[in-house]
Design brief:
Length: 197
């Protein structure tokens, strides 16, 4: 793992246990992803890497409004727009450089925003996705509409620099009232789909 990947892994470990510490790392993480943004889509995004998220999306009902959190160059937002042309798809990322790339590559709506304090109303989305992203569970739960779904994927399983074991993801979501729908293994990674009753 590169130094940057080790940093991302450390931040993930800390922030999942103590979300309030995110503010300590926010600047550093934003800078790191701003630096990576121009080459991200070409070097880190592929159909194989997206396979776990695709498996979870295939099991999710058609959304009216979906949100991809930590969207990076917008790969998952584009996937959703391709799969559900009628859906209103938004991507959000803390890195302005990533959002610029996402806007360059796709026509979905993209915002610069922090997953720790999402700039959206309660229950605004009926599908929320995170691919290789640190989950801020309270905010995920807040913006997911009743009856809505959450899909969380890690494209290289435990080898993904930003990685949270699915048992942990499931437990945190269940603590907030979500029901587990299914786990998926595809390509080199894993994913989970949950539903808010
Ligand atoms: C490993 S990349 C994954 C990007 C994209 N989901 C993909 O699979 O290609 C993690 C992304 O999450 C973003 N990110 C990290 N922490 C964030 C936060 N608190 N709020 C919003 N975006 C965040 C980073 O800027 C980066 O674009």
């Amino acid at each position: 793992m590169t130094l940057g990947q080790r940093f991302a892994r450390l931040v993930t470990l800390v922030v999942v246990r103590a979300p309030f510490l995110w503010r300590v790392f926010r600047k550093g993480m934003t800078r790191q992803f701003d630096r990576l943004a121009p080459e991200w889509d070409e070097t880190r995004v592929s159909r194989e890497r997206l396979a776990p998220m695709i498996a979870a999306l295939e099991a999710a009902p058609t959304p009216r409004r979906s949100l991809d959190v930590g969207t990076g160059s917008g790969a998952v937002a584009r996937l959703m727009a391709e799969r559900w042309p009628e859906a209103d798809v938004t991507g959000v990322d803390v890195s302005p450089g990533m959002v610029e790339e996402a806007r360059r590559l796709g026509r979905q709506h993209y915002d610069v925003g922090d997953a720790a304090a999402l700039p959206y109303g309660d229950g605004a989305f009926d599908l929320v996705t995170l691919n290789n992203m640190i989950p801020f569970f309270d905010e995920i739960a807040r913006v997911t509409a009743p009856g809505g779904h959450v899909a969380i994927a890690y494209s290289m399983g435990p080898r993904t620099p930003i990685w949270v074991p699915l048992e942990r993801v499931r437990a945190e979501l269940e603590r907030r009232g979500f029901l587990h729908v299914a786990d998926f293994k595809a390509g080199t990674g894993v994913a989970l789909l949950a539903r808010r009753p």
